[in-house]
Amino acid sequence: MDKNRGKSMHDILPNVFKCLKEQQYIGSTVHQDLEYNFHTFLGEVVSLCGQKQLKRVI
């Protein structure tokens, strides 16, 4: 038997919205972290490539 059968939409919706809000926060945080890591990695690659090009010129 479904344990939520007797609950009304009024009782269930706040939990649904809370869950969706938490998922949105987690997704946003993960996206920001990945973006930061990508830019950090890209900066390191550019820095290394720049150093290699300088060594070739010298």
Automatic annotation (TrEMBL):
The lineage of its organism: Eukaryota, Metazoa, Spiralia, Lophotrochozoa, Platyhelminthes. This is Uncharacterized protein.
